[in-house]
Amino acid sequence: MVASGQPFWWDEAPPQDSTAVLPKQADVLVVGSGFTGLSAAWTLARRGRSVVVCEAGLVGSGASTRNGAHVGAKLRPSLSALTDRFGEAKAVALCREAMAARNYIGDLVESENIACDFAAMPRYTGAHRESDFAGMAKSADLMAKKLGFPIAAVPPAEQDRYVKTDAYHGGTIDHSTAGFHPGKFIKGLSERLQDAGAIIVTRNPVQGIEPDGSGFSVRTAKGTVRAKNVLVATNGYSGPLVQHLRRRIISIGSYIIATEPLGNNRVRDLIPGCGLLGDTRRAASYMRISPDGERIIYGGRVAASEISPELSGPRLKAVLDRIFPDLRSARFTHSWMGFTGFTFDDLPHTGVVNGLHFAMGYCGTSGTSLGVYLGHKTALKILGDQEGRTAFDSLTFETRPFYTGNPWFLSAAVAFFRFRDWAKI
Q1: pTM across the whole model
Q2: Total of domains in the chain
Q3: Which domain holds residue 331?
Q4: Secondary structure string (H, E, C) spanning the chain
Q5: Average pLDDT by consecutive 10-residue portion of the chain (425 residues)?
Q6: What is the CATH number of the domain that holds 404?
Protein backbone atom coordinates (compact mmCIF):
# COMPACT_ATOMS: atom_id res chain seq x y z
CA MET A 1 0.00 0.00 0.00
CA VAL A 2 1.29 3.46 -0.91
CA ALA A 3 0.64 5.96 1.86
CA SER A 4 -1.51 8.97 1.08
CA GLY A 5 0.43 12.23 1.01
CA GLN A 6 -2.47 14.18 2.43
CA PRO A 7 -3.33 14.58 6.13
CA PHE A 8 -5.45 11.89 7.72
CA TRP A 9 -7.86 14.63 8.85
CA TRP A 10 -8.66 15.53 5.23
CA ASP A 11 -10.33 12.16 4.59
CA GLU A 12 -13.44 13.27 6.46
CA ALA A 13 -13.02 17.04 6.31
CA PRO A 14 -11.01 18.29 3.32
CA PRO A 15 -10.18 22.01 3.28
CA GLN A 16 -12.99 24.02 1.71
CA ASP A 17 -12.81 26.36 -1.26
CA SER A 18 -14.84 29.56 -1.48
CA THR A 19 -16.68 31.30 -4.28
CA ALA A 20 -17.03 34.55 -2.33
CA VAL A 21 -16.27 37.78 -4.18
CA LEU A 22 -13.60 40.00 -2.67
CA PRO A 23 -15.19 43.20 -1.33
CA LYS A 24 -13.62 46.60 -1.94
CA GLN A 25 -13.64 47.50 1.75
CA ALA A 26 -14.08 45.99 5.19
CA ASP A 27 -13.78 46.96 8.81
CA VAL A 28 -11.14 44.25 9.35
CA LEU A 29 -9.08 42.18 6.93
CA VAL A 30 -7.61 38.95 8.32
CA VAL A 31 -4.60 37.35 6.62
CA GLY A 32 -4.81 33.58 7.08
CA SER A 33 -7.69 31.17 7.69
CA GLY A 34 -6.20 28.94 10.37
CA PHE A 35 -7.15 28.72 14.03
CA THR A 36 -6.11 32.29 14.81
CA GLY A 37 -7.61 33.98 11.77
CA LEU A 38 -10.96 32.19 11.86
CA SER A 39 -11.33 32.64 15.61
CA ALA A 40 -10.67 36.37 15.30
CA ALA A 41 -13.07 36.68 12.37
CA TRP A 42 -15.78 34.87 14.35
CA THR A 43 -15.45 37.24 17.33
CA LEU A 44 -15.44 40.32 15.08
CA ALA A 45 -18.37 39.21 12.95
CA ARG A 46 -20.45 38.44 16.01
CA ARG A 47 -19.84 42.00 17.17
CA GLY A 48 -21.19 43.39 13.92
CA ARG A 49 -17.93 44.19 12.13
CA SER A 50 -17.54 43.56 8.40
CA VAL A 51 -14.72 41.04 8.05
CA VAL A 52 -12.92 39.56 5.08
CA VAL A 53 -10.48 36.66 5.51
CA CYS A 54 -7.87 36.30 2.77
CA GLU A 55 -6.38 32.82 2.40
CA ALA A 56 -3.57 31.91 0.00
CA GLY A 57 -4.81 28.32 -0.32
CA LEU A 58 -7.99 26.65 0.89
CA VAL A 59 -9.65 27.24 4.26
CA GLY A 60 -7.35 26.08 7.04
CA SER A 61 -5.10 24.18 4.64
CA GLY A 62 -1.92 25.12 6.53
CA ALA A 63 -0.92 23.71 9.91
CA SER A 64 -4.40 24.07 11.37
CA THR A 65 -5.62 20.95 9.54
CA ARG A 66 -2.23 19.22 9.49
CA ASN A 67 -1.39 18.97 13.19
CA GLY A 68 -1.38 16.19 15.77
CA ALA A 69 -4.79 17.25 17.17
CA HIS A 70 -3.74 17.64 20.80
CA VAL A 71 -5.58 20.34 22.76
CA GLY A 72 -3.37 21.29 25.69
CA ALA A 73 -3.22 23.77 28.53
CA LYS A 74 0.53 24.16 28.94
CA LEU A 75 3.21 26.41 27.50
CA ARG A 76 6.46 25.04 26.12
CA PRO A 77 8.66 26.41 28.96
CA SER A 78 8.01 24.99 32.43
CA LEU A 79 6.63 27.07 35.27
CA SER A 80 10.05 26.92 36.91
CA ALA A 81 11.82 28.16 33.77
CA LEU A 82 9.31 30.98 33.36
CA THR A 83 9.74 31.96 37.01
CA ASP A 84 13.50 32.19 36.53
CA ARG A 85 12.97 34.50 33.55
CA PHE A 86 10.08 36.68 34.66
CA GLY A 87 9.46 36.14 38.37
CA GLU A 88 6.71 34.05 39.91
CA ALA A 89 3.77 36.45 39.41
CA LYS A 90 4.36 36.81 35.66
CA ALA A 91 5.13 33.11 35.23
CA VAL A 92 1.88 32.13 36.93
CA ALA A 93 -0.06 34.63 34.82
CA LEU A 94 1.39 33.21 31.59
CA CYS A 95 0.55 29.64 32.62
CA ARG A 96 -2.98 30.66 33.54
CA GLU A 97 -3.43 32.10 30.05
CA ALA A 98 -2.60 28.69 28.57
CA MET A 99 -5.14 27.09 30.92
CA ALA A 100 -7.73 29.68 29.88
CA ALA A 101 -7.00 28.90 26.22
CA ARG A 102 -7.84 25.22 26.75
CA ASN A 103 -11.10 26.18 28.43
CA TYR A 104 -11.97 28.71 25.73
CA ILE A 105 -11.75 26.27 22.82
CA GLY A 106 -13.75 23.67 24.76
CA ASP A 107 -16.44 26.21 25.58
CA LEU A 108 -16.53 27.41 21.96
CA VAL A 109 -17.03 23.88 20.62
CA GLU A 110 -19.85 23.29 23.10
CA SER A 111 -21.62 26.65 22.75
CA GLU A 112 -21.54 26.60 18.94
CA ASN A 113 -22.21 22.88 18.69
CA ILE A 114 -19.21 22.26 16.42
CA ALA A 115 -19.12 18.53 15.62
CA CYS A 116 -15.37 17.88 15.73
CA ASP A 117 -14.91 14.81 17.97
CA PHE A 118 -13.80 17.05 20.83
CA ALA A 119 -13.25 14.94 23.95
CA ALA A 120 -11.30 15.28 27.18
CA MET A 121 -8.46 12.77 27.25
CA PRO A 122 -5.36 12.57 29.45
CA ARG A 123 -1.89 13.06 27.99
CA TYR A 124 0.98 10.89 29.17
CA THR A 125 4.47 12.33 28.72
CA GLY A 126 7.18 9.70 28.96
CA ALA A 127 10.71 10.16 30.27
CA HIS A 128 12.96 9.36 27.32
CA ARG A 129 15.97 9.06 29.66
CA GLU A 130 15.91 7.67 33.18
CA SER A 131 17.48 10.92 34.37
CA ASP A 132 14.53 12.93 33.00
CA PHE A 133 12.00 11.56 35.47
CA ALA A 134 13.11 13.42 38.61
CA GLY A 135 12.86 16.80 36.88
CA MET A 136 9.47 15.92 35.38
CA ALA A 137 8.12 14.90 38.78
CA LYS A 138 9.38 18.11 40.37
CA SER A 139 7.86 20.24 37.62
CA ALA A 140 4.51 18.45 37.88
CA ASP A 141 4.43 18.90 41.64
CA LEU A 142 5.16 22.63 41.27
CA MET A 143 2.36 23.12 38.73
CA ALA A 144 -0.09 21.22 40.91
CA LYS A 145 0.78 23.26 43.99
CA LYS A 146 1.05 26.73 42.42
CA LEU A 147 -1.70 26.47 39.81
CA GLY A 148 -3.92 23.63 40.90
CA PHE A 149 -2.99 22.05 37.57
CA PRO A 150 -4.28 18.46 37.20
CA ILE A 151 -0.94 16.77 36.58
CA ALA A 152 0.94 14.11 38.50
CA ALA A 153 4.13 12.09 38.25
CA VAL A 154 3.86 8.43 37.25
CA PRO A 155 6.72 6.25 38.56
CA PRO A 156 8.13 3.64 36.17
CA ALA A 157 6.45 0.83 38.10
CA GLU A 158 3.02 2.40 37.40
CA GLN A 159 3.57 3.32 33.76
CA ASP A 160 1.71 0.30 32.37
CA ARG A 161 -1.54 1.83 33.61
CA TYR A 162 -1.20 4.42 30.84
CA VAL A 163 1.11 3.06 28.15
CA LYS A 164 2.79 -0.29 27.71
CA THR A 165 6.30 0.29 26.45
CA ASP A 166 9.88 -0.12 27.63
CA ALA A 167 10.88 3.05 25.77
CA TYR A 168 9.93 5.35 28.68
CA HIS A 169 11.12 5.47 32.27
CA GLY A 170 8.08 6.80 34.04
CA GLY A 171 6.53 10.17 33.22
CA THR A 172 3.61 12.45 33.98
CA ILE A 173 -0.12 12.26 33.38
CA ASP A 174 -1.91 15.51 32.50
CA HIS A 175 -5.70 15.48 32.92
CA SER A 176 -6.27 18.96 31.44
CA THR A 177 -5.86 17.89 27.82
CA ALA A 178 -8.31 16.98 25.07
CA GLY A 179 -8.28 15.69 21.53
CA PHE A 180 -10.34 16.71 18.52
CA HIS A 181 -10.60 16.51 14.75
CA PRO A 182 -8.93 19.71 13.49
CA GLY A 183 -10.40 19.46 9.99
CA LYS A 184 -13.94 19.22 11.32
CA PHE A 185 -13.27 22.06 13.77
CA ILE A 186 -12.02 24.38 11.02
CA LYS A 187 -14.99 23.46 8.83
CA GLY A 188 -17.48 24.11 11.63
CA LEU A 189 -15.92 27.38 12.73
CA SER A 190 -15.68 28.69 9.16
CA GLU A 191 -19.37 27.92 8.65
CA ARG A 192 -20.32 29.74 11.85
CA LEU A 193 -18.40 32.89 10.99
CA GLN A 194 -19.75 32.98 7.43
CA ASP A 195 -23.27 32.64 8.84
CA ALA A 196 -22.40 35.67 11.00
CA GLY A 197 -21.57 37.67 7.86
CA ALA A 198 -17.80 37.28 7.48
CA ILE A 199 -16.39 36.62 4.00
CA ILE A 200 -13.61 34.10 3.26
CA VAL A 201 -11.80 34.48 -0.05
CA THR A 202 -9.61 31.47 -0.86
CA ARG A 203 -6.73 31.16 -3.36
CA ASN A 204 -6.08 34.80 -2.66
CA PRO A 205 -2.62 35.51 -1.23
CA VAL A 206 -2.06 38.96 0.19
CA GLN A 207 0.71 40.64 -1.78
CA GLY A 208 1.16 43.95 0.00
CA ILE A 209 -0.18 46.12 2.84
CA GLU A 210 0.19 49.89 2.75
CA PRO A 211 -1.07 52.62 5.13
CA ASP A 212 -4.03 54.48 3.65
CA GLY A 213 -5.35 57.38 5.68
CA SER A 214 -6.85 55.99 8.87
CA GLY A 215 -6.62 52.41 7.61
CA PHE A 216 -4.78 50.20 5.14
CA SER A 217 -4.83 49.36 1.46
CA VAL A 218 -4.39 45.61 1.12
CA ARG A 219 -3.34 44.33 -2.29
CA THR A 220 -4.30 40.70 -3.00
CA ALA A 221 -4.22 38.37 -5.98
CA LYS A 222 -7.92 39.07 -6.60
CA GLY A 223 -7.94 42.80 -6.03
CA THR A 224 -7.39 45.53 -3.46
CA VAL A 225 -9.33 45.99 -0.22
CA ARG A 226 -9.36 49.02 2.01
CA ALA A 227 -9.62 47.99 5.66
CA LYS A 228 -9.62 49.98 8.87
CA ASN A 229 -7.71 47.21 10.68
CA VAL A 230 -5.59 44.28 9.56
CA LEU A 231 -4.75 41.11 11.49
CA VAL A 232 -1.82 38.98 10.32
CA ALA A 233 -2.38 35.37 11.40
CA THR A 234 0.09 33.40 9.30
CA ASN A 235 2.27 31.75 12.01
CA GLY A 236 4.56 29.10 10.43
CA TYR A 237 3.54 30.24 6.94
CA SER A 238 4.67 33.83 7.45
CA GLY A 239 6.52 35.05 4.39
CA PRO A 240 7.94 38.43 3.36
CA LEU A 241 4.60 40.24 3.73
CA VAL A 242 5.60 41.74 7.10
CA GLN A 243 9.36 41.52 7.47
CA HIS A 244 9.25 42.49 11.16
CA LEU A 245 7.25 39.33 11.89
CA ARG A 246 9.20 37.15 9.48
CA ARG A 247 12.38 37.93 11.41
CA ARG A 248 10.77 36.66 14.62
CA ILE A 249 9.10 33.45 13.45
CA ILE A 250 11.09 30.26 12.88
CA SER A 251 9.17 28.04 10.48
CA ILE A 252 9.77 24.38 11.32
CA GLY A 253 8.27 21.36 9.61
CA SER A 254 6.42 18.80 11.69
CA TYR A 255 5.91 15.32 10.21
CA ILE A 256 3.08 12.90 10.99
CA ILE A 257 1.84 9.45 10.01
CA ALA A 258 -1.38 7.54 10.66
CA THR A 259 -1.28 3.77 10.93
CA GLU A 260 -3.72 1.49 9.20
CA PRO A 261 -6.77 0.53 11.30
CA LEU A 262 -5.43 -1.65 14.11
CA GLY A 263 -8.64 -2.34 15.98
CA ASN A 264 -9.76 -0.77 19.24
CA ASN A 265 -8.59 -3.70 21.34
CA ARG A 266 -5.09 -3.72 19.91
CA VAL A 267 -4.72 0.05 20.36
CA ARG A 268 -5.98 -0.09 23.93
CA ASP A 269 -3.65 -2.97 24.74
CA LEU A 270 -0.77 -0.62 23.94
CA ILE A 271 -2.27 2.60 25.32
CA PRO A 272 -4.74 1.61 28.07
CA GLY A 273 -4.96 4.75 30.20
CA CYS A 274 -4.70 7.86 28.03
CA GLY A 275 -5.48 9.19 24.56
CA LEU A 276 -2.52 11.47 23.94
CA LEU A 277 1.19 10.83 24.37
CA GLY A 278 4.47 12.71 24.18
CA ASP A 279 7.96 12.32 25.55
CA THR A 280 11.03 14.31 26.55
CA ARG A 281 13.02 13.96 23.33
CA ARG A 282 14.42 17.28 22.18
CA ALA A 283 13.38 16.40 18.62
CA ALA A 284 9.58 16.43 18.82
CA SER A 285 7.77 13.14 19.43
CA TYR A 286 4.03 12.89 20.03
CA MET A 287 1.09 10.64 19.25
CA ARG A 288 -2.59 10.10 19.87
CA ILE A 289 -5.31 7.55 19.34
CA SER A 290 -7.53 8.46 16.38
CA PRO A 291 -11.06 9.66 17.22
CA ASP A 292 -12.54 6.30 16.23
CA GLY A 293 -10.04 4.45 18.43
CA GLU A 294 -8.73 2.37 15.51
CA ARG A 295 -5.39 3.98 14.68
CA ILE A 296 -2.31 5.56 16.18
CA ILE A 297 -1.32 8.94 14.79
CA TYR A 298 2.38 9.62 15.40
CA GLY A 299 4.40 12.75 14.71
CA GLY A 300 7.89 14.08 15.22
CA ARG A 301 11.05 15.42 13.73
CA VAL A 302 13.04 12.76 11.87
CA ALA A 303 15.54 14.77 9.78
CA ALA A 304 17.85 17.72 10.29
CA SER A 305 16.45 19.53 7.26
CA GLU A 306 13.01 19.59 5.67
CA ILE A 307 12.21 16.43 3.70
CA SER A 308 9.24 15.04 1.79
CA PRO A 309 6.46 13.04 3.49
CA GLU A 310 7.52 10.10 1.29
CA LEU A 311 10.87 10.07 3.11
CA SER A 312 9.62 11.03 6.56
CA GLY A 313 6.90 8.36 6.70
CA PRO A 314 9.17 5.28 6.97
CA ARG A 315 11.43 7.09 9.43
CA LEU A 316 8.51 7.98 11.68
CA LYS A 317 7.25 4.41 11.51
CA ALA A 318 10.69 3.16 12.56
CA VAL A 319 10.59 5.36 15.67
CA LEU A 320 7.03 4.26 16.45
CA ASP A 321 8.16 0.62 16.14
CA ARG A 322 10.87 1.22 18.74
CA ILE A 323 8.24 2.54 21.13
CA PHE A 324 5.80 -0.27 20.32
CA PRO A 325 7.66 -3.27 18.81
CA ASP A 326 4.33 -5.09 18.37
CA LEU A 327 3.48 -2.63 15.57
CA ARG A 328 6.37 -3.62 13.29
CA SER A 329 4.06 -5.56 11.00
CA ALA A 330 1.50 -2.74 10.82
CA ARG A 331 1.48 -0.39 7.85
CA PHE A 332 0.85 3.32 7.77
CA THR A 333 -1.72 4.78 5.39
CA HIS A 334 -1.01 8.52 5.61
CA SER A 335 2.20 10.55 5.77
CA TRP A 336 2.13 14.34 5.76
CA MET A 337 3.72 17.49 7.13
CA GLY A 338 2.96 21.10 8.02
CA PHE A 339 4.91 24.12 9.20
CA THR A 340 4.74 25.26 12.80
CA GLY A 341 5.82 28.71 13.99
CA PHE A 342 8.47 28.79 16.71
CA THR A 343 9.93 31.83 18.46
CA PHE A 344 13.31 32.53 20.02
CA ASP A 345 11.86 32.61 23.54
CA ASP A 346 9.56 29.56 23.11
CA LEU A 347 6.46 31.66 23.80
CA PRO A 348 3.55 32.87 21.64
CA HIS A 349 3.25 36.56 20.89
CA THR A 350 0.47 39.01 20.15
CA GLY A 351 0.58 42.74 19.57
CA VAL A 352 0.70 45.52 17.00
CA VAL A 353 3.51 46.41 14.59
CA ASN A 354 3.24 49.37 12.20
CA GLY A 355 -0.46 49.46 12.98
CA LEU A 356 -0.97 45.79 12.04
CA HIS A 357 -2.30 43.39 14.64
CA PHE A 358 -0.75 39.93 14.92
CA ALA A 359 -0.89 36.72 16.97
CA MET A 360 1.47 33.81 16.27
CA GLY A 361 4.43 31.76 17.47
CA TYR A 362 2.75 28.87 19.28
CA CYS A 363 5.92 26.74 19.25
CA GLY A 364 4.16 23.48 18.48
CA THR A 365 2.80 23.24 22.03
CA SER A 366 -0.92 23.77 22.63
CA GLY A 367 -1.05 25.73 19.37
CA THR A 368 -4.59 24.53 18.77
CA SER A 369 -5.97 26.09 21.94
CA LEU A 370 -3.62 29.09 22.02
CA GLY A 371 -4.24 29.89 18.35
CA VAL A 372 -7.99 29.99 18.83
CA TYR A 373 -7.72 31.87 22.14
CA LEU A 374 -5.27 34.53 20.98
CA GLY A 375 -7.26 35.05 17.78
CA HIS A 376 -10.26 35.82 19.99
CA LYS A 377 -8.24 38.08 22.29
CA THR A 378 -6.73 39.99 19.37
CA ALA A 379 -10.19 40.55 17.94
CA LEU A 380 -11.26 42.03 21.28
CA LYS A 381 -8.28 44.40 21.15
CA ILE A 382 -9.34 45.54 17.68
CA LEU A 383 -12.80 46.19 19.11
CA GLY A 384 -11.31 48.25 21.93
CA ASP A 385 -12.54 45.77 24.53
CA GLN A 386 -10.39 45.62 27.68
CA GLU A 387 -11.10 41.88 27.89
CA GLY A 388 -8.59 41.50 25.07
CA ARG A 389 -5.66 42.02 27.41
CA THR A 390 -3.40 39.03 28.04
CA ALA A 391 -0.22 38.27 29.96
CA PHE A 392 1.52 37.86 26.59
CA ASP A 393 1.02 41.52 25.67
CA SER A 394 4.09 42.82 27.49
CA LEU A 395 6.56 40.24 26.18
CA THR A 396 9.39 41.38 23.94
CA PHE A 397 9.15 39.65 20.57
CA GLU A 398 12.78 38.73 20.07
CA THR A 399 14.81 38.16 16.94
CA ARG A 400 18.53 37.55 16.36
CA PRO A 401 21.19 39.42 14.40
CA PHE A 402 21.35 38.39 10.73
CA TYR A 403 18.11 36.39 10.95
CA THR A 404 15.76 37.32 8.11
CA GLY A 405 13.33 34.39 8.16
CA ASN A 406 15.55 31.66 6.74
CA PRO A 407 16.43 29.33 9.68
CA TRP A 408 19.93 28.52 8.45
CA PHE A 409 20.84 27.30 11.94
CA LEU A 410 18.02 24.76 12.14
CA SER A 411 19.73 21.76 10.52
CA ALA A 412 22.68 21.82 12.89
CA ALA A 413 20.46 22.29 15.94
CA VAL A 414 18.08 19.47 14.99
CA ALA A 415 20.97 17.16 14.14
CA PHE A 416 22.46 17.81 17.58
CA PHE A 417 19.14 17.21 19.34
CA ARG A 418 18.52 14.00 17.41
CA PHE A 419 21.99 12.74 18.34
CA ARG A 420 21.30 13.50 22.01
CA ASP A 421 17.97 11.68 21.78
CA TRP A 422 19.59 8.66 20.14
CA ALA A 423 22.43 8.57 22.67
CA LYS A 424 20.06 9.41 25.56
CA ILE A 425 22.46 12.04 26.93
Answers
A1: 0.96
A2: 1
A3: 8-412
A4: CCCECCCHHHCCCCCCCCCCCCCCEEEEEEECCCHHHHHHHHHHHHCCCCEEEECCCCCCCCHHHCCCCEECCCCCCCHHHHHHHHCHHHHHHHHHHHHHHHHHHHHHHHHCCCCCCCEECCEEEECCCCCHHHHHHHHHHHHHHHHCCCEEEECHHHHHHCCCCCCCCCEEEECCCEECCHHHHHHHHHHHHHHCCCEEECCCCEEEEEEECCEEEEEECCEEEEEEEEEECCHHHCCCCCHHHHCCCEEEEEEEEEECCCCHHHHHHHCCCCCEEEECCCCCEEEEECCCCCCEEEEECCCCCCCCHHHHHHHHHHHHHHHCHHHCCCCEEEEEEEEEEECCCCCCEEEEECCEEEEECCCCCCHHHHHHHHHHHHHHHHCCCHHHCCCCCCCCCCCCCCCCCCCCCHHHHHHHHHHHHHHCC
A5: 84 97 98 98 98 98 96 96 98 98 98 98 97 97 98 98 97 98 98 97 98 97 98 96 96 96 98 97 90 97 88 96 97 96 97 98 93 98 98 96 86 64 62
A6: 3.50.50.60
